[in-house]
Amino acid sequence: MILPLDDETRARLPSRLPSWRIEPGRDALRRDFTFPDFSAAWAFMSRVALLAEKHNHHPDWSNSWNRVSISLTTHEAKGLSARDVALAQAIDAIAG
After folding, report:
1. What single DSSP character describes residue 87?
2. Where are the alpha helices (DSSP H) in 2-81?
3. Which residues contact 85 (CB under 8 A, 6 or more apart)?
4. CB atoms < 10 A from the CB of 50, how many?
5. pLDDT tens-digit map of 27-83
6. Is the pTM of this model over 0.85?
7. Measured on CA atoms in the order 8, 11, 13, 18, is the torsion positive or negative?
8. Cα 94 from Cα 29, distance rounded (Å)
9. What is the dihedral of CA 68, 39, 34, 91, to 10 degrees?
10. Catalytic residue list
């Protein structure tokens, strides 16, 4: 069973994940990325896809030309969980 984040962990999210925000209307983390072109955005998505498989946790995302938007939430926990935090940190590591 995957548990939702407790209040203390939630309070630390802005310092642990400064580029991510809570998505309005959802208990989800969201980050938008912009790249020089479509090819760079697609390459980033490919790297994130490999991370998602490794973490066995898959994002909700979209791509439009040079932009990628990623939302992370854990359906089993009905909101944010440690899985979302771990994947967001891994994504940040490859985003540079």
Report:
1. H
2. 7-16, 38-55
3. 5, 9, 13, 16, 17, 29
4. 11
5. 999 999 999 999 999 999 999 999 999 999 999 999 999 999 999 999 999 999 999
6. yes
7. negative
8. 17
9. 60
10. 53, 57-58, 75-76, 84
